[in-house]
Amino acid sequence: MMKFKPNQTRTYDREGFKKRAACLCFRSEQEDEVLLVSSSRYPDQWIVPGGGMEPEEEPGGAAVREVYEEAGVKGKLGRLLGIFEQNQDRKHRTYVYVLTVTEILEDWEDSVNIGRKREWFKVEDAIKVLQCHKPVHAEYLEKLKLGCSPTNGNSTVPPLPDSNTLFVTAAQTSGLPSSIR
Hints:
The radius of gyration is 15 Å and the shape is globular. It is an alpha+beta fold and 181 residues long. Helix 3 packs antiparallel against helix 4. A hairpin with a 7-residue loop joins strand 4 and strand 5. The longest helix has 13 residues. It holds the Pfam family NUDIX. This is diphosphoinositol-polyphosphate diphosphatase. One of its GO terms (molecular function) is diphosphoinositol-polyphosphate diphosphatase activity. Its EC number is 3.6.1.52. It is an enzyme of class 3 (hydrolase).
């Protein structure tokens, strides 16, 4: 199923979730500094770069395209961290990948068109910044800290989700202390 917006096609899966893709963009393979971008809707708030998947687009390709458009970076696409669902205000299902940045553009599409900013954050600081207004984005980094480290051998990216793919919903983790999430 698709919905059309000016210059954008939104794609949905069979359950009515908007298909999205995003990347946690790291400065190095140590994954200790992550790049966040300013929100287009709320420029004083930081978010993880990502957006809707185009028709026929693979999640990894969509994630790389969105990062290029929103953050002005290119890099080495790594593992699929997980598929996160947001049910409250919007039904989103987001494929979140790890990307090691190898190239930073001086000017990029969203910086020129809408004045988007980007900034490197230590992972702990990024979690704090995101928890206020984008708790699902903070969950991406919490999951990263919970054992999806670069040394756990999970470096392959499956082309499509299978029965072993993890789905995380905000409702599943919202009542848990952050040390358990």
